[in-house]
Amino acid sequence: MAKDQTPVVRLQDYAPPAYLVDRVELDFRLDPQSTRVRSRLHVRPNPDGPGGDLVLDGEDLELTALELDGAPLAGTAYKLDKDRLTITTPPERAFVLDIGTTIDPSANTRLMGLYRSNGVYCTQCEAEGFRRITFFPDRPDVLAVYTVRIEARASDAPVLLSNGNPVGSGVVAGSDRHYAVWHDPHPKPSYLFALVGGDLGRVGDTFVTASGREVTLGIYVEKGKEDRCDYALEALKRSMRWDEDAFGREYDLDVFNIVAVSDFNMGAMENKGLNVFNDKYVLASPETATDTDYANIEAIIAHEYFHNWTGNRITCRDWFQLCLKEGLTVFRDQEFSADVRSRAVERIGDVRTLKAHQFVEDAGPLAHPVRPETYKEINNFYTATVYEKGAELIRMLKTLLGADGFRAGMDLYFDRHDGTAATIEDFIGCFAEATGRKLDDFMLWYHQAGTPEVTASGRYDTAARTYELTLEQTCPPTPGQPTKQPMPIPIAFALLGPDGDEITDLKTESPAVRDGLIELTGTRERIVFTDLPAKPVPSLLRGFSAPVKLTANLTDDDLLFAAAEDSDPYNRWQAVQSLATRILIAAQAAIADGRTPEIEPRFLRSLEHTVEADALDPSFRAQVLSLPSESDIAREIGRNVDPDAIHGADQWLRGLIGGELGACLTDVYRRFGSNLPYSPDAAGAGRRALRNTALGLIAGTGQAGIETAEQHYRNADNMTDRMAGLSALTRQGAPEADAALDDFFERYRTDPLVLDKWFSLQATMTGADTLDRVTALMRHPAFSLSNPNRVRALVGAFAAANPTQFNRADGAGYRLVADFTLEIDRSNPQVAARLLSAFRSWRVLEPVRRAAAEAALRRIAGHEGLSRDSADIVERSLD
Ligand code: PHE
Ligand code: ZN
Asked: Residue 707 C-alpha to ligand 2 middle, in angstroms?
């Protein structure tokens, strides 16, 4: 295979820009095939820069005009290459550059730069999309003030939006065109530029900030969908208030707009004052959105809004610093969700996500540090590691420094770096300075990839009345990092007495222990607690206080005790998960050997006990009743994985729970039904989650269970329940499932976002005919290669969430995904590269599947004309 020739970008090569752009005036004449862009740049040499030529990035642009201080540039004064425009030896003073370009938004299938989605003009510039609009130093450390004029046919695009505040509008005399002018007073990098034009509906409101600024809020959507925006609008107002209360951050423009588009590569984008969203994260009604959809909408609306301070006011110096804005902003949105919903349940959900995605990434060939040091394609670094592990690092910082120290550091960061492009060192430096604590060792968390493994062993000495706890850490090798240094690991903990209470006033000489926290800094730490009358049960890593893999020498008895008694709800949940994991790993080994699996009966009683405990939050009980997923088990096994055996174990345990806990589950199912109208609040969602989890188990117990699921599907008055009924049927592979799927299609055939659920459910069915089903669905009229949501709903779900069928031993699952990916790679490389990351765990599979997956990867790698995005993923996966 011909190695990809793309140059590697290195953090160590960072140099400040040679030229700065203080102001940009953009003038757009929108046209579906031929949009004309005039750009006026007010340029000056950077006093701290290296000097030399002025290099402007550009991609897929037609250059139509080029003037310096009003005079056309001679052909000898510039050089035009495939990916840049170089002005050779420009003046050593400030000057004005006028650039004309023409672009074709309709031909833009990569959805980067200016494109058309369902007739709406929109832009996506992060990370390097602005260069597909005009020639520009397209790097985040060039901050400019933008004024944007947009002109379009009034009938085509009655709505014209850009960043900042509206400053003018009117009709173009003697034509069918009109225009709008926007001015954004806050200097920003080009990746935060945005423009939207189209015939959109609007839902509006106002928000008054803490200091009394009135902000006009607008959400723009496809006409006819206005009635699905209420929840997003309320979530926006909650977010704005929360950032004032929790971080003292106010909004800073007169308007804040959100636009929902149907073709979007990612979830949403935080463009200054003009967030652009994948419509899936805006539109919701009880009939079309599930409780999970509502929660995602709230979190993502908040996330993009919070970027206004962490990302926009303070941006990244270069793309290696991506976690500076993303990790921090994910932390902020998680804290917001914890505050407006249930903190314990939010944490459990966040940790589930972290382990399911980031731990897997960290254990495979695509592992990279939270702040990477090299990349070939930056689009491939919008990863679970940068986002989710990045958020965990902020959480650890807060745990280590305490709430007040953390807030002091944040305040200093906002104060000192506002209006600049910063680095992780700048950020961490603020916490060190504000608290007086050295944080040099903490930087290792940003440098070293891999999930640290912590082992804990406790020993009680009855005669001496001491409890000795030994903690050790190691970190496995990752690409380019064969050895690791020990990292500072905050382990929140308690020792539980025989009654289950936390033992107060613990006595120890160890300097590593303070106030419910052990700071493990070296490779090994031995802590002796004295004066304990009885053997305690340790509750370690409470609230999952560090992103590590903890192995403790706890017996089944200890875990059962923790499941019933631990006062930390996270650890209480974790104890049940750990027990279930032990049982499932043993069961899959038994199944692989043709033996009958065995159950620890006390596990079932413990589960029953929790499910029946009405003192506990229903959403928490739903989490306890949700067993580890098949991929969780695969991750825990870590080598020679046989997905069929794991699936067998899962079926077995679910069947057992459904049968043994039948009365309890049926009782929950009856008691948690509601006659009240649907409301998406956390309490209602929690009750539905518990009831629907029970339903899923009941459905596995025979024909009566199937009938319950069918009725549940039919009688549902909201999408959460409807989907719960339908997925209970498809999961059982019941003959009733097909009729219900047909019914579902007929009900929602005009609603693409709802049909995505229909595609995904079918893509994750476990029968051997799923492959044919997915192949047929690829030709379904409701499917579309050009819409990323459709692609992810069908092929993404099949590859990432159907372990037995994607990993078919005959390799047909891999071939299907490989063929499809090669097809989509030609039009949208970013989406293709993301699909390919489903192959990242191929090395942990048993040999037959491993060989089949490798063959598929090698075929992709050898494909003529493979995009840089996909080449980067397959090459690293094969390395
Ligand atoms: N910056 C976006 C976020 O909020 C993600 C994104 C990245 C969107 C690249 C589009 C393109 O996380
Ligand atoms: Zn973000």
From this structure: 43
- CB 269 near ligand 1, within 6 Å: yes
Using the structure block, give the residue that is written with the tokens 């995505």.
Answer: 756
pLDDT confidence of 1, banded at 50, 70, 90? very low
Q: What is the DSSP letter of 387?
A: I
Q: Is the peptide bond before 861 cis (omega within 30 degrees of 0)?
A: no
Residue with tokens 């509502």: 294
From 193, 269, 322, 324, the mutation candidate for ligand 1 (largest count of ligand atoms within 8 A of CB) is 269
Cα 23 to the chain's mean position, in Å?
33
Q: Does CATH place domain 325-332+343-447 in 1.10.390.10?
A: yes
Fold of 569-878: Zincin-like fold (1.25.50)
The reply to whether 453-546 shares the fold of 1-198 is yes
- For residue 295 the two structure tokens come to 């929660």
Residue with tokens 């073709």: 263
> Would you tell me how many other CB atoms lie within 10 Å of the CB of residue 7?
6
Q: Is 406 helix (H, G, I), strand (E, B) or coil?
A: helix
CATH number of 1-198: 2.60.40.1730
Ligand located closest to 269 CA: 1
pLDDT tens profile 438-447: 999 999 999 9
Taking only the tens place, the pLDDT of each residue in 224-277 is 999 999 999 999 999 999 999 999 999 999 999 999 999 999 999 999 999 999
* Domain-wise residue ranges, the chain: 1-198, 200-313, 325-332+343-447, 453-546, 569-878
The residue-averaged pLDDT of 307-333 equals 99
Name the CATH topology of 200-313: Zincin-like (3.30.2010)
State how far the alpha carbon of 378 is from the alpha carbons of 16, 482, 778, 837, in Å. Answer: 19, 24, 29, 15
pLDDT, tens digit, for every residue of 137-152?
Answer: 999 999 999 999 999 9
Q: Which helix (H) or strand (E) holds 836?
A: helix 829-836
Q: Which fold has domain 453-546?
A: Immunoglobulin-like (2.60.40)
CA of 125 to the centre of ligand 1 (A): 9
Strands of the sheet with 489-496, listed across from one edge: 513-514, 517-520, 489-496, 537-540
pLDDT tens figures, 602-626: 999 999 999 999 999 999 999 999 9
What is this model's ipTM? 0.99
> 565 an active-site residue?
no
